[in-house]
Amino acid sequence: MTDNTPDTEQRPALVVDFGAQYAQLIARRVREAGVYSEIVPHTATAAEIAAKNPVALLLSGGPSSVYEEGAPKLDPEVFELGVPTLGICYGFQYMAQTLGGEVANTGLREYGATDAYIPENGSSLLAGQPVAQNVWMSHGDQVARAPEGFEVLATTDATKVAAFANEERKLYGVQWHPEVKHSDHGQAILENFLHRSAGLAADWNSDNVIAEQIERIRAQVGDARVISALSGGVDSAVSTALVHKAIGDQLTAVFVDHGLLRKGEREQVERDYVASTGVRLITVDAADTFLGHLAGVTDPETKRKIIGREFIRAFEKVQRDLVDEAKASGEKVKFLVQGTLYPDVVESGGGAGTANIKSHHNVGGLPDDLDFALIEPLRTLFKDEVREIGRELGIPEAIVGRQPFPGPGLGIRIIGEVTRERLDVLREADAIAREELSAAGMDQAIWQCPVVLLADVRSVGVQGDGRTYGHPIVLRPVSSEDAMTADWTRLPYDVLAKISNRITNEVSEVNRVVLDVTSKPPATIEWE
Ligand code: XMP
């Protein structure tokens, strides 16, 4: 399960991870340019990198100084592979130093928006770029002298060498971060590198992925039976639909209703999802069991463990029933579909250089020791790519476009004991918040907006003519690229006002709505 190799025969552009969180962002931007990408740790040797047959290399930024003891290194032979290479920030400095240039700490730091000057030049990387442009910097050291054979392509007020190129060797570097949106022409520079410097076509897209995965799934499964745990979330919805497209009724989808779902979620799966995909679905009614085991429990980790354990029990029962049914026809269910995404693969692969910020969350928390071979058709993909594939497979927008929702559901959004009554309160408040956010066209602006019930807190209010002593609801709207880091979303006041008014009017147990204005880190997205 911790194999870090995605399932594809595509030749990748490889992003070498020097330990910042920029590697995933670079990998995504490369894919947005139509080139398939993968991430490798900086500890990979030149031979290991060559074995992946890469079409290009991009060296990421990182938090260290190149001359610091213990600074991340890369096998210098990598620069002799003849693969077009772009160094970014730390990667740029590492390339400069390794190839005989000079990196120094001049005391001139640059953080944030910076003006770069790009004089006329003939390079494939920056030719035709605006002479003055705003770029995003984050560095203390400077490349003081470019290595021999390299042309300096850009400067800033503080940095004499802000970009360079050696066209003959196809080696390039920029001090700034072209992968962040704050760099004005960042994506154009990455595209120049991929399409012009490296000569790559923009031919990687979701159609290829669907066709390739269907073939792969058929080859892996043959005529065997397969089950899939459907959580109602995007990842399991798309992986299930993809497998169904490949093998039809050999697949049975299993949906566990643990009583911790959002309003309308079960109907959406049972009715809309089944109607659009034609998948065979078994729903397990397990709310009583889950809530029984959660009674009296307030500790977040204990809740998570109970929910995970009960999920497995429910699932094992289905497995037994299906096996019994299958025995009659002499078959045995041995394959399980999981909606693992590429960020999960990278994060659980760990490896030097990759920051392990969150623990691996998989759909419903199925353990490794269930006796199944896994089918993970989304292992190479990022969330936005998964959504695109879901749309192409005809899954309703209400499911494909939905916010990420944790496997333990509303159970970890009630701070305090989880009871049926509290779930009803939270479910109503959550539905109102989602409805108003959609109505205000905010779905694209936010990554997700957990709605949290502070069930053990009460405050005084006045509703109608009477004094109330109700519970607060917390709104936690966040913006994020990948949920590893996040910022609180600056929602328009009138949208917040509408949500607050409606919740306090329509949900009688709630008399106060508060806004969480904390980024991640230091807070996580979910409260538990
Ligand atoms: P945190 O709270 O760690 O959440 O900042 C990061 C992202 O992961 C989601 N999340 C989960 N997803 N099972 C899941 O499938 C889980 O146990 C789980 N816990 C958190 C969370 O909603 C956010 O998108």
Automatic annotation (TrEMBL):
Question: Which reaction is this enzyme known to catalyze?
Answer: XMP + L-glutamine + ATP + H2O = GMP + L-glutamate + AMP + diphosphate + 2 H(+)
Give me the residues that bind ATP, please. 231-237
Q: Name one Pfam family in it.
A: GATase
Catalytic positions? 89 (nucleophile), 177, 179
Is this entry keyworded Membrane?
no
Which pathway does the record list?
Purine metabolism; GMP biosynthesis; GMP from XMP (L-Gln route): step 1/1
GMPS ATP-PPase domain boundaries: 204-402
What does the UniProt record say this protein does? Answer: Catalyzes the synthesis of GMP from XMP.
Q: How does it assemble?
A: Homodimer.
| Protein name per the record | GMP synthase [glutamine-hydrolyzing]
Q: Which organism is it from?
A: Microbacterium capsulatum
Its gene is guaA
